[in-house]
Amino acid sequence: MKLPALAAAVAALDLAGVAHSFTHPGSAAVQQHGASIRHRRTTHLGMTIVSPFANTTDGEDDDLEGDAGVATATYTPLPSDDEPLDLTWDNVDMVLDEMRPYLLQDGGNVAISEIDGPVVRLELQGECGTCPSSTQTMKMGLERKLMERIPEIQEVVQAMPDSPDLDEEQINIVLDSVRPFLQVAGGTIDIDSITGAGGIQPTITLKMEGSAASLNSVKLEIAQRLQRHFMISGLRVEWA
Asked: pLDDT digit string (tens) for 16-28?
């Protein structure tokens, strides 16, 4: 049986040793060195090349008994973006995990509130819950991605936490927390009007007088306090 090309290449590694042996007279040295080459060649091939088709007899594979077995692993690929998912709580949460980093960057988060048939109800948390763009975030971002990955979903709606009624009494609770600071600067703040209560985009119009009336930072702080108090998506605060 002829040795393959790999065996010839292995033998070539000892070319320098062979040439050195031939520089000394005496066939015994040459034969001994040649036998050494054949021994090393056979050993090398036996350790690194194992034919899956070779028939072995008793004792031929003794040298391989100590070799470590071949390690195997089971790989379960994740569903690709093209593979539709079933409508389950875990799958909805998995899709939301893809978008949570963007919400967290803005100080917000999202959680599943309820799955009622094909309708998924989500709760926007943190800054996302009071952000004026929360409706756009829900419809253009979360709903779009969820319906792409889970075709069974027909609608994604925002779950609103229990919040106080939008009336003058509740608004004045918030305004009373800032009135002492405005009075120090000689300013006042009052409710001018409330419109759209119970609608998609309710609006609170306030009237502020004094030196603080020209400070946008003060107006922004008051608007944020009102939004956090009522937790109404789309609530607007305007100034008369």
From this structure: 444 443 344 444 4
